[in-house]
Every structure is written in C-alpha cells, then in structure tokens.
C-alpha cells in the first residue's frame, strides 16, 4: 500500500518530467508513468531529425526511468485528438490573420483531459507534470502561482487548466530551481538526462519553419493569398508580400523589403490581404480585449483590479487595470504602452505570483 495513493505522471522523456516522477516515487506515491504521442514528425514534412517529446528516443528515455524505479509506464496515442484540435486551430488562426499559441492549447485542452481520462481508468486520484509552477487552494478555488525559478517559471502556460483538473493536479517542481533538478539527477545517476538537450520548438514544426508547414499543410494556400500588398499606416503601397498568413505582429526579419529604415509588421488585414508595416513606435498599444476566459483565483472579476499582465510567454508583464466587461470578455488597460500585442496569443493576469486567469487576445487598441 502506497503512502500517498496512486498518481499518473506525464513523462516526456526530458529531465523535468522524469525528475517529477522520481521525486513523487521517493515521497511514497504509487507512480504510473505515461508518455503521450501527439505527433509523427514524418507527417510534418520537415527536414530535421526527430527530436523532442514525441520521438522514439524520448519515449524510451521515459520508459527507462520507470523500469529502473520499478513502476509501470504506458504510451498514450493522442495523435488524432491533437491533430484535429491543436493543428486545425494553428492553421485556422493564421488564416484569420492571428498568431496562435499551440503549446498553451495542447497543455490545457489536450494533455490534461487525456491524462485525467486515463487516470480514471487506472484508479489514479492525481495526475502530475514537470511544469515549474506551484498550486494552492484559496477560498475553495485552486490557483496556479509562479515557480520560484523565475527563468523557468511556466505558470503562463497553465492559465487554461480548469478548476476540476487543478483539484487533481500535483506540480512537484514548483519550489525547485533548474540547477537543483540537474543536481538531483546527477546524484541519482541519471547522467543521460543531465546531458540531454532541451527542445523549445513547436513539436509539429521541427524545423521552426511555420511558413513551410502551412504551405505543406494547405498546398492551395499560396495560390489564394500570394501577391498581397505591403502598405504603410496611411494606406500607401510599398511592395508585395507572400500572403498575410505568413506574417506575425512584431515581425522584422524575413520581410523581403527595404525602406531605408527598420520596419515591423504592425497589423494584418485578412480581408484585403494587406500587411501593414511601420516603425517600432507604431507597434505600441495601451489596451486590448481578451476573450475565451478561464479564471482561476476568482470566479468572476466583480470590479476592476490591478494586475501584471503578460501578452506572450517571454514577456515580463506590464501593470494593467483589468475589467470584466462581459461574461467571456475582459478589457485590459495598460498604464504604459506595450509593444507587439498579437491577437491569437494568450494573455495571463497576475496578482503577485498568483494567476488570476487568462484568455486569448482578440484585439488591441491605442487610446490617448
């Protein structure tokens, strides 16, 4: 009989999720490991060697840990669910002129649901992951908060996890630094994990070329959108682009145009197949609307509150007043302008270290 009960651990084969399973095993949980197969690199048409959480090597690395510690390990094939939901959303957002965040979508809508369904079948009370974040209960609600390792904190990607899912979740790495995890792996003799490189790419775009992926996924796309106009804010045409889905707000490199000064993509106009260019100052906005909300700390934002709001994963966050203007819509008013707010990206609201909630950026604006 285990000390704490049975727990299903998501194991990607990397050092973080592997050490999460090791630590829970040592704490007395009855651990069951599970590696999710989300994607076949061969079907992506990319040119790089298969790496990352879906590769055969990663699956074998996860299984090796399980065998060494004596707990079961399973492979869960969710390629159909992943493709139908995450990849269709990814391509659909670019076709709408937005910039998607598939990793957030996968974490919160695919992996958690898939894990919990399998946890029920295996009589596991809890699930666990190797995310660097903390989780606590306050006022009968479960709240994700930042991990103590500021560089590795992954609370941003967990804003969309539901209350029901958080109630059954353990995050064993939240109070540890990455350097401590590496030392723990060394002490336990897992040198292959210590020396393993980490992947920061989108798993189904292994060469980091999302344009190429879109062209392979939607071969008819180029004929439909190629040859649109680059325009300035005043509407003047300054060149031709490859098609609006192949650009993102804030992009500077790969534009294929020289105007004698640095220019960035400041707006994407799907209806007219126009990509608006401008100087860096023209990227600045002081407000946005966020929809498709998931609130964690509160059931509803009853009155405006001050937050630190992040508009992308590596954004430091900026002070902002947020107001829930509809059941599924929040207005964000930054105290100072923020650059390159991209519709389609996730916005996450913080009070101190706590995740108030988050949603998807639908529109940015600039008010005087």
TrEMBL record:
Residues 287-361 form the tRNA-specific 2-thiouridylase MnmA-like C-terminal domain. InterPro entries: MnmA-like (IPR004506), MnmA-like_C (IPR046885), MnmA-like_central (IPR046884), MnmA-like_central_sf (IPR023382), Rossmann-like_a/b/a_fold (IPR014729). Keywords: ATP-binding, Cytoplasm, Disulfide bond, Nucleotide-binding, RNA-binding, Transferase, tRNA processing, tRNA-binding. It is found in: Cytoplasm. Residues 212-279 form the tRNA-specific 2-thiouridylase MnmA-like central domain. The record marks 131, 345 as: Interaction with tRNA. Belongs to the MnmA/TRMU family. This is tRNA-specific 2-thiouridylase MnmA. It comes from Runella defluvii. The lineage of its organism: Bacteria, Pseudomonadati, Bacteroidota, Cytophagia, Cytophagales.
């Amino acid at each position: 009989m285990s000390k704490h009960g049975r727990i299903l651990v998501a194991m990607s084969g990397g050092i973080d999720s592997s050490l999460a399973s090791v630590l829970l095993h040592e704490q007395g949980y009855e651990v069951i490991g599970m590696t999710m197969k989300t994607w076949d690199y061969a079907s992506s048409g990319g040119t790089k060697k298969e790496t990352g959480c879906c590769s055969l090597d990663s699956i074998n690395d996860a299984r090796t840990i399980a065998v060494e510690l004596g707990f079961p390990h399973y492979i869960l094939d969710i390629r159909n669910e992943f493709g139908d939901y995450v990849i269709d959303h990814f391509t659909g957002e670019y076709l709408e002129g937005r910039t998607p965040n598939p990793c957030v979508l996968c974490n919160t809508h695919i992996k958690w649901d898939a894990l919990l369904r399998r946890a029920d079948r295996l009589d596991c009370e809890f699930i666990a992951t190797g995310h660097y974040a903390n989780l606590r209960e306050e006022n009968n609600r479960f709240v994700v908060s930042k991990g103590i390792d500021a560089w590795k904190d992954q609370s941003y990607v967990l804003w969309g996890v539901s209350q029901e899912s958080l109630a059954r979740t353990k995050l064993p790495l939240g109070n540890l630094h990455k350097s401590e995890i590496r030392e723990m792996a060394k002490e336990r003799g897992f040198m292959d994990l210590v020396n393993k490189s980490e992947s920061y790419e989108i798993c189904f775009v292994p060469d980091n070329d999302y344009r190429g992926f879109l062209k392979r996924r939607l071969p008819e796309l180029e004929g439909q959108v190629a040859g649109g106009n680059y325009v300035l804010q005043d509407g003047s045409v300054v060149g031709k682009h490859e098609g609006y889905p192949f650009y993102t707000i804030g992009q500077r490199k790969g534009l294929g145009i020289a105007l004698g000064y640095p220019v960035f993509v400041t707006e994407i106009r799907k209806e007219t197949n126009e990509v608006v260019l401008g100087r860096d100052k023209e990227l600045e906005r002081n407000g946005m609307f966020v929809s498709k909300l998931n609130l964690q700390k509160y059931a509803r934002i009853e009155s405006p509150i001050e937050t630190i709001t992040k508009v992308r994963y590596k954004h430091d966050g900026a002070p902002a007043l947020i107001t829930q203007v509809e059941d599924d819509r929040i207005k964000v008013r930054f105290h100072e302008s923020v650059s390159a707010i991209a519709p389609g990206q996730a916005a996450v609201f913080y009070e101190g270290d706590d995740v108030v909630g988050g949603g998807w950026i639908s529109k940015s604006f600039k008010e005087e």
